[in-house]
Amino acid sequence: MQHVSWFDARTLLHAEGSLHAAATERVALPSAIGRVLAEPLKSPLPVPHYDSSAMDGYALAGRGPWQLLASQESQPGENVHRKTVPLEAGQATPILTGGLLPPGADAVLRLEHARLSNDGDLAMIEALPHFFERSPHLQPAVGDDIRRAGEELAAGATVLAAGIRLGARHIGSLATLGFDSLPVYTQPTVALAYTGNEIITGGLPGPGEVRDAFSPQFPFIIESFGARVTSTVRLQDSAPNFHHWLDHTAADILMLTGGSSTSDVDWVRRVLTELGATYIFESVAIRPGHPALAALLPDGRLVLGLPGNPLAAHVALYSYLPAVLAGIFGQPLAQLPTGTLTAAVPGYSTKDLRLIPVTIEVTPGGVHLTPQDKTRSHMLTGFASADALALLPPEGAEAEKNCQFLGLPV
Ligand SMILES: Nc1nc2c(c(=O)[nH]1)N[C@H]1C(S)=C(S)[C@@H](COP(=O)(O)OP(=O)(O)OC[C@H]3O[C@@H](n4cnc5c(N)ncnc54)[C@H](O)[C@@H]3O)O[C@H]1N2
Ligand code: MOO
User: Which of UniProt's keywords are assigned here (predicted)?
Assistant: First the structure.
């Protein structure tokens, strides 16, 4: 029986994942959200990539007043941002925010800081002096309201490191740099099987029946970790059903809920043994969630068995799948942050590490973890509003104790 610590379970799975590094593919920008970047990205352009105006107003050359050169006629729908006329000292031309700075221009005067006048046939423009009381000539200084090419980033600068998980905000920034597609790791595939003949999927459960606490959200959680759920089935509890599912399901990771404990009706271990699976671990020294298992089938597919008790299953899902995926994506196993408990947690009867749902509050004084109640293995109401799982010793902990925690990002 390979009974391991929670830390060892994660380290073993991370190491196993590292042996199955994901392949790389290119995907269009919007499809890259949530994917893991496979190569570092360098900016193909300086940012901004051209000198432009930061405001609507007038591009100026030299000191004013300025002769206003009319902008060229434009057609409806035409991109006037590209249209410009070269300026000589003493000349100005209208410009829009983001418009290409004309050759010769050295500042921009905002529309609302300008006064138009006529000098004979010439249209003239001056700066309203009270807006420029701190400038030596009561007018814009060289560079005012100009965005210079490259002031944000030089061309070739690294913008993102390989291995980061791409969020929606990364995509906006990469679009401005001109990327159309990105190199990302392929998503490991996960097949899910839910067991439990007592489980029903809708309506009010009667005595001896239980509403399914996994299928409505497990695929979402798994995909938010960066994997792709390729199939889900509901297995009637039986060895032949499980055997058939393992034999006929193609996925990198086969994840089963329930049927993990050691009683006679639990056939999971029996079938795994029949199929010649090698255990990575058979149980973990934690509460809740000790009957979780991980095994390798002879063809390399990974089987993760999550306990049936709902909180135990969630604890196992958040503890182990991200560890495997980090290995597959070439990422280190995440370091666990620490925080202090705001209340004592009483001791427990076993010698196992406990993972207790907590809410997190961050103050200038530090990270505070408030233990939830209603957190026994079959309970989800405390976990539902928790932000993290605090790692606590079996003997419990006093308030103010510092402890590690595993974040619950989804
Ligand atoms: N004699 C022992 N009994 C149990 C032990 C033990 O060590 N000795 N361990 C207990 C612990 S701890 C856990 S956790 C469970 C693990 O049980 P299984 O993984 O075999 O899961 P089941 O027996 O199928 O179900 C347990 C429990 O969870 C409910 N369940 C299952 N699936 C769902 C679902 N999709 N949604 C909501 N609830 C679900 C199921 O109805 C049972 O109540 O074993 C303990 N027993
Ligand atoms: O360890 Mo069980 O998984 O307490 O619920």
Answer: Magnesium, Metal-binding, Molybdenum, Molybdenum cofactor biosynthesis, Transferase
